[in-house]
Write a structure and sequence with these properties.
heterodimer, A: 530 residues, alpha+beta, 43% helix, elongated, B: 383 residues, alpha/beta, GMP Synthetase, Chain A, domain 3, 2 domains, 13 strands
Chain lengths: 530, 383
């Protein structure tokens, strides 16, 4: 492809049409309009009253007043929210120095607050802010605010100290071989996990806050000399246009910035593993870390990433290719097996070998419902069981499995409600679904779609249904990158990491469209084994 | 808006074409069909045909039992008779898995095209159904015979026909072969013959020998030995057994055929045609029912010589018999001439039957006995 430029379809973005253009206005500026009349004054008592009035009825806001031993005029106070700061550090680095130091030696200078900031407060993050809104923002973020009598400025000191979960292996993405670290709910820790793996100044991070009320910290990170600038600016545009009350998980962002909002297929990827995210960053993708969510988003996202697993790259490439083929065929089969079975059994009996026909016919003797209906029912029951298993508390989950197996299996067949092959096919299809749980949505719905097509048109229906799915996939893009990138190629370098996992010494180039600016991953031939 | 209309039209077009272009779009459950395994066609008493269907009935549950039933109906045509079946069993008969058609001699004599036309025309029936002729009075009684294995009779017969390769006592061929042969000038065919024998008080069907057809009319039967000879000339032998007609030394010898290749070579001398039939057989001595050491010294040579002479004589006699008795070219000599000597064939094609009756046939068999299986010598007996 000569024109490997990224084409961003602006119209594809789900928002923009019916929403006001508001990209310039940030959250803090908006709230400044509301508190226009209130400003910080010189008197510490006024300021305390001001802050208390803003947070009235909130008893977790603590104010601690104190005075310097030597300078009686130096009345000060700190504000913080209970439990959100590290008390020990506040005591040691803020209260103690201000209490004990002889502040009268600094009084000769013009600005005592500045002197405090520069010479007394033993803390690594101290900023002076004049605006009351900054003060409010800092407080809700869990920072400590320091007021000094006689100054209309506040010092914001960052001493967060809440509990975080330990870095552990993510439940949803376990590996036999490979690093066992997983992201946690803190954006700072997650960034550390990534930065520990990429030691280059080209690694960039951009922060922003999304959510009117939750003010969730969202960090975009990328490697500057690989990333496509147009994808980056498109991502930033989409993030800027988000207007929502709160972001509780990266899933919110995922849904708000995606292409093809009505498709079953995801166009934004995620992982809970830093090694996966870093490998995607190295291919020119952009990661979006959302505070409070261990799932880090990556864009652009293509279909074949569903088939890739991080373990593919840590294991022998032959085994990895084999595993990848298993995953892809399993996914396709789990979608098509019930439909193909239905089509063959109800339309194309002549395709079956005679002994198979006889045993299938025998299994259907006395079963009242048509095969198609029993498939719909059985697949629905399977989905119900799956959802129940996910929702139930762990201790009762076992019971569901047993009841499900009994109801679905033995009892249904013995009671002649469904035929045995239908149960077998349903179970097979269900198990194959679990092999690639990220594709659950498309598999569930397209399975029903294909089943419907098969019950109306037989195998022709299955083929037509599959054609529609492929056409839909081929029309999709994720941030301008064709969704089926790499699917149609095997020998080309885009396909080296698609159906197969080529050996590392041959994968010299990055995915062409995603990392068009800086294609070469390593020098050709340098690593070649003879 | 324009795009929506375009997409709507496209969907309409795709679904319409799919409706019109597909053949089978009747949803039907597998248990609502009467699976037909075999068909027997007899002359009807009131109407033209009496068609007997062997239908596999199945009992469900954990242990599947196949219960074959036969149903006979009459009709003025094959299809009429077959459809009348519904009046008896309610389910529609399903023919895609039928394995064979057995035709009675009477029907076969009148011309079999009326019967097999339906098989090659109907969408559900297959053309690779075996065609057999009943040696007994009716075809029906064969389907009512008792099978030896646990399988349905027709499925067992199907296996018997498939495994003829290592027996070679009956030809094998399906309806498609028969129809292909019909359109040729020589227009004759052999199909396997089936009979029902009383074995230990039970009636068991047996496939042995062949039935000769001239165009679509049945002429007569061949016995098993003649069928084998015919198959040798036709180059259709892939295995089987040859046994000596008389004792060599003090024992009979039996050969197992490994490979058999026949080449027919037409030699034309002005208007006289001589068909040279060269049969090359690779075999092994597989059984000696006596103590004669047939492989000692000149033994193998003698043995080969004996079997060559035997087969030559048998073939020559058999060809003569066919020429005089039936006068139909069942060996494919006409086909060979058509292929190799098309100029000559054009001159004689119109009176090929006459030409065939006067055809000179020279059979030249060449047998190579490779080994004597696992024994080097004959079993020795102490005096």
């Amino acid at each position: 492809m000569p024109g490997s430029m990224v084409i961003i379809k602006l119209g594809d973005c789900m928002f923009g049409k019916d929403k006001k253009k508001k990209s310039g206005i940030t959250n803090s500026e908006k709230s400044s309009n509301a508190n226009k009349t209130k400003e910080l004054g010189k008197s510490i008592e006024d300021n305390i009253d001001l802050v208390n009035s803003i947070f009235s009825n909130d008893e977790t806001l603590i104010v601690r007043r104190f005075q310097n031993k030597f300078l009686k005029t130096a009345k000060c106070c700190i504000f913080y929210f209970e439990g959100m700061i590290d008390y020990e550090v506040v005591n040691e680095s803020v209260i103690k120095p201000v209490l004990d130091n002889n502040l009268s030696q600094y009084i000769s200078d013009n600005n005592l607050l500045e002197e405090l900031q520069n010479k007394v407060l033993a803390n690594n993050y101290v900023r002076a802010k004049k605006n009351i809104n900054n003060v409010v923002d800092a407080l809700v973020r869990g920072e400590t605010v320091f007021f000094l009598d006689g100054y209309d400025e506040a010092l914001i000191i960052k001493i967060n100290g809440w509990k975080k979960r330990a870095v552990s292996e993510p439940e949803s993405e376990r590996v036999v071989r490979g690093p066992r670290e997983g992201f946690i709910e803190s954006v700072e820790t997650n960034l550390v996990l990534i930065r520990r793996r990429i030691k280059t100044p080209e690694f960039k991070t951009k922060f922003r806050e999304i959510g009117e009320r939750t003010r969730t910290k969202v960090c975009i990170c990328y490697i500057d000399d690989i990333v496509s600038k147009s994808i980056l600016s498109e991502l930033e545009r989409r993030l800027d246009e988000i207007n929502i009350d709160g972001i509780l998980d990266s899933g919110y962002i995922q849904e708000l910035i995606r292409d093809e909002p009505f498709s079953f297929f995801e166009t934004v990827g995620y992982s809970e593993r830093p090694d996966v995210v870093v490998s995607r960053l190295l291919e020119g993708r952009i990661a979006i870390i959302v505070d409070g969510s261990p799932a880090v988003l990556t864009v652009p996202f293509i279909l074949l990433e569903h088939a890739q697993s991080n373990e593919d790259y840590y294991n022998n490439y032959i085994l990895a290719t084999f595993n990848r083929l298993i995953r892809t065929t399993a996914t396709i089969s789990s979608m098509t097996i019930p439909a193909v079975y239905l089509a063959v059994v109800t339309y194309h009996q002549e395709m079956l070998p005679t002994p198979v026909l006889l045993s299938l016919s025998a299994s259907r003797q006395g079963v009242p419902f048509p095969t198609s209906l029993s498939f719909f029912i059985m697949l629905l029951i399977f989905d119900v069981l799956r959802e129940t298993g996910a929702r139930m508390p762990l201790s009762t989950g076992q019971a569901i499995n047993i009841v499900g197996a009994l109801v679905l299996g033995e009892a249904a067949i013995n009671a002649k409600l469904v035929s045995a092959p239908v149960v077998v096919i349903t179970a097979l299809s269900g198990i194959l679904t679990l092999l690639n749980s990220r594709l659950l949505t498309p598999i569930i719905f397209l399975r029903f779609f294909l089943l419907l097509a098969a019950s109306v048109l037989g195998l022709y229906g299955v083929i037509f249904g599959f054609m529609i799915i492929i056409l839909h996939l081929a029309s999709m893009r994720s941030f301008g990158v064709p969704y089926l990138l790499g699917v149609t190629r095997i020998m080309h370098h885009d396909g080296q990491d698609a159906w197969i996992r080529a050996p590392w010494w041959t994968m010299t180039l990055r995915p062409k469209i995603i990392a068009a600016r800086n294609l070469v991953r390593e020098t050709v031939g340098k690593n070649r084994r003879r | 808006m324009k795009k929506t209309i375009k997409i709507a039209l496209l969907i309409l077009l795709i679904s319409l074409t799919s409706f019109f272009s597909v053949g089978c779009w009747n949803y039907r459950e597998i248990d609502e069909m009467a699976i037909v395994s075999g068909i027997a066609v007899d002359k009807g008493i009131n109407k033209k045909y009496l068609v007997t269907l062997e239908i596999v009935e199945l009992t469900g549950g954990t242990d599947i039992k196949q219960l074959p039933r036969t149903v006979s109906t009459e009709g003025d045509s094959m299809f009429d008779a077959v459809r009348n079946e519904i009046a008896f069993i309610g389910k529609k008969a399903y023919f895609s898995h039928a394995k064979l058609v057995i035709v009675s001699q009477e029907v076969a004599r009148e011309g079999i095209v009326k019967v097999i036309d339906w098989f090659s025309r109907d969408t559900e029936t297959r053309e690779n159904i075996y065609l057999l002729v009943s040696k007994n009075e009716t075809a029906k009684e064969i389907l009512e015979g008792k099978q030896i294995t646990n399988e349905v009779l027709s499925f067992q017969l199907d296996k018997m026909l498939q495994n003829q390769e290592s027996l070679e006592k009956a030809p094998s061929g399906d309806i498609r072969d028969f129809i292909n042969n019909l359109s040729t000038e020589w227009a004759c065919h052999v199909v396997p013959a089936i009979s029902i024998e009383n074995v230990n008080g039970e009636r068991r069907p047996e496939i042995m020998g062949a039935a000769i057809f001239r165009t679509d009319k049945f002429l007569g039967f061949l016995d098993a030995l003649d069928t084998q000879t015919m198959l040798f000339i036709q180059n259709k032998v892939r295995g089987g057994v040859i046994y000596s007609e008389e004792k060599i030394g003090d024992s009979y010898a039996i050969l197992e055929i490994f490979k058999s290749k026949t080449k027919i070579n037409p030699v034309i001398d002005v208007n006289n045609i001589t068909m040279e039939v060269n049969i090359n057989i690779t075999a092994a001595l597989d059984e000696v029912d006596g103590t004669a050491n047939l492989l000692e010294g000149e033994g193998p040579k003698k043995l080969e010589q004996y079997f060559e002479d035997m087969l030559n004589n048998r073939a020559a006699k058999f060809v003569k018999e066919i020429q005089t008795k039936y006068g139909t070219d069942i060996f494919g000599f006409g086909e060979k001439l058509y292929e190799d000597e098309s100029g000559f064939w054009k001159r004689i094609r119109n009176n090929w039957d006459e030409e065939f009756e006067n055809l000179k046939v020279k059979v030249n068999t060449n047998i190579k006995i490779k080994n004597s299986a696992q024994l080097a010598k004959s079993l020795e007996m102490g005096d």
